Amino acid sequence: MDQTKNFQRKIENFKCGNCGNLVIGNGFTNHCPKCLWSKHVDVNPGDREEICGGMMKPISVKLENGEYFITHKCMQCGFERRKKVEKEDDFDEVIKI
């Protein structure tokens, strides 16, 4: 698949598959701001074309140029993807990683 395909903004609310939190999406939301877990649903960000559907665990956080990035790893297939930490994210959870 073409990993350079443009981002597709998709505004969706979802229930976190890890902690059950109801997440109000803004079109850029790809993980739960409470526990930071995500779900492997995209081939390219926002397309919802990935068939895996596995839960993605936040496995690391890295500070780059003054911004924090979370790396999520799919617990089903091993795929990894990075996402910037958002202001809505529970920073105590970010620090725990």
Topology at a glance:
Elements: E1 14-15, E2 22-23, E3 38-39, E4 55-64, E5 67-74, E6 80-84, H1 91-96
Antiparallel strand pairs: 1-2, 3-4, 4-5, 5-6
Instruction: Give the amount of beta strand, in percent.
Output: 25-35%
Looking at the chains present, what oligomeric state does this protein adopt?
A: single chain
Q: Biggest sheet: strands side by side, in what order?
A: 3-4-5-6
> Which consecutive residue ranges, at least 5 long each, have pLDDT under 50?
none
Instruction: Characterize the main sheet.
Output: 4 strands, antiparallel
| Count of all domains | 1
- The termini sit apart by 30 Å
Mean pLDDT: 90
Total strands: the figure is 6
What is the H/E string?
A: EEEEEEH
Tally of helical runs: 1
Whole-angstrom Rg: 13 Å
Helix percent reads under 10%
The structural class is: mainly beta
Which overall shape is indicated by the principal axes computed on the Cα atoms? globular
Structure description:
With 97 residues, the protein is mainly beta. It has one domain. The chain contains 1 helix and 6 strands, in the order ββββββα. It has one helix at 91-96; strands at 14-15, 22-23, 38-39, 55-64, 67-74, 80-84. It has a 4-stranded antiparallel beta sheet, with no helix packed on it. The chain has a two-stranded antiparallel sheet with strand order 1-2. A hairpin with a 2-residue loop joins strand 4 and strand 5. The longest helix is centred in the last third of the chain and has 6 residues, at 91-96. The radius of gyration is 13 Å and the shape is globular.
